[in-house]
TrEMBL record, chains A, B:
Domain Endonuclease/exonuclease/phosphatase, residue spans: 4-247
Broad enzyme group: hydrolase
Entry-linked CDD domains: ExoIII-like_AP-endo
Positions of the record's site feature: Interaction with DNA substrate: 247
Family membership: Belongs to the DNA repair enzymes AP/ExoA family.
Name of the protein in its database record: Exodeoxyribonuclease III
Length: 256, 256
DNA sequence: GTATCGAAAG
DNA sequence: CTTTCGATAC
């Protein structure tokens, strides 16, 4: 079973690339982020034509997440549903083939200590609370998303430059660690302890050609799924060519 | 010798279509209108790659005209050069293979009697004056352009609807007639006296699928070129498909 | 650099 | 409907 995550940076602007990628990569499940469109504007027809069901939590202009799957996702939950007044469409979960799948788009955080940064840390706390409330660590859970946090020094292209910058501050890395402490493992790092691969490269300054990126798109697994994990990688090819997203898809393979 | 005219409605938005059309239609000369970009933003490289020189008179956002040719255009004149203070880039002329070629983008005129309408009539008068000043009726001159005037009832899809509307008012048709009175012949009508073909269809209201258009893109010839005129047609195919211009190219063939 | 938006123009 | 712009966000 192949599960992937991809921040498409506008599902309408990237519709053809999305369909092409689905057809060639053939994931069983794809977590999408930054749809940048409402449910009404989501390209359901093109996705269905490619062989996928879609559970969508859209929003105009900003955010928007979805779970695409070859079998129909059930028990869809849109938003963290914790009573907090929050209009951002950053979270969706659904059950696919007996696995609880999450597609998450963590806040970027803008500048350190800005309201957006505070919101980011709080959002991570709320997501941990979601897990504590709804799940046990031995549930079958896969959380894919753009987490907007590089977990470790190896996950940024230049530690000296990134130190103290949003996406890599100690408080953000700690927030991610608190989330993972629920019982989640980073699939890529689990299989490749010493490999430096990135999933996002700024559009500007030729960052992709220079391979100056960061790894902020992750797939997290609960413990019972770890023995089934056989592969995890970044599809760097998808960042190439005309009008790519600034993120590359990340995928994993579960045996059985 | 094949000479064409095409209002591309943004040369940057239409760059790939332009290159494809040049490669398949292989005109010796192409008059372009509504470049909607400055000279600095004109895609000289792509045009050169397709085998064409380009004489450009660009303008930001609006208007902009060019003459593309397989041999280098010489003696380029940008604007009507009549001392009138006019920032609109609507006129360029150059010599190609011994023929004086004009690419013109006539004002639209907006509403009847609006300042834009007055400007349109005046622009036609100035263009006639340009010819009187610079040319004799037996010079070899081809004027291609978006003239924003349908000359005759046959040139609009519904005379009753168009009567009195801009593009078809008597005063506009008279202004065009005054211009032609210099000694110009409408190549398409010359060869096809009774054929109704359109060159522009509004993007809205499914006007193209319904073939509700008007013929406002014309190629005018001076008398000495008439005996050489062997063909003239509208390339309706170019209006089809994804992201077309709202105008189709019009082309003619001169023998020898 | 690449999206979004709404306004203005055709 | 399609394009432009300038503003905003990442």
């Amino acid at each position: 079973m192949r599960i992937a995550t991809w921040n498409v940076n506008s599902v309408r602007a990237r519709q053809q690339r999305l369909v092409n990628w689905l057809k060639s990569a053939q994931p069983d499940v794809l977590c999408l982020q930054e749809l940048k469109c409402t449910d009404a504007d989501f390209p359901f027809d093109a996705v269905k034509e490619a062989g996928y069901f879609a559970a969508v939590h859209g929003q105009k202009t900003y955010n928007g997440v979805a779970i695409l799957a070859k079998t129909e996702p059930t028990d869809v939950i849109r938003g963290l549903s914790d009573g907090v007044d929050d209009t951002h469409a950053r979270f969706i979960s659904a059950t696919v083939n007996g696995i609880r799948v999450v597609s998450a788009y963590a806040p970027n955080g803008q500048q350190v200590d800005s309201p957006a940064y505070v919101y980011k840390l709080e959002w991570y706390r709320r997501l941990r609370n979601y897990l504590d409330t709804r799940h046990k660590p031995d549930d079958l859970v896969v959380m894919g998303g753009d987490w907007n946090i590089a977990p470790e020094p190896i996950d940024v292209y230049d530690v000296a430059q990134w130190e103290g910058q949003t996406l890599f501050t100690l408080r953000e890395r700690d927030a991610l660690q608190q989330l993972r402490a629920f019982g989640l493992t980073d699939a890529f790092r689990q299989l490749h302890p010493d490999v430096q691969k990135f999933s996002w490269w700024d559009y500007r300054m030729l960052m992709f050609p220079k391979n100056k990126g960061v790894r902020i798109d992750h797939l997290f697994l609960t413990a019972p799924l770890l023995p089934r994990l056989t592969a995890c990688d970044v599809d760097r090819e998808e960042r190439k060519g005309q009008q790519p997203s600034d993120h590359a898809p990340v995928w994993l393979e579960l045996k059985d």
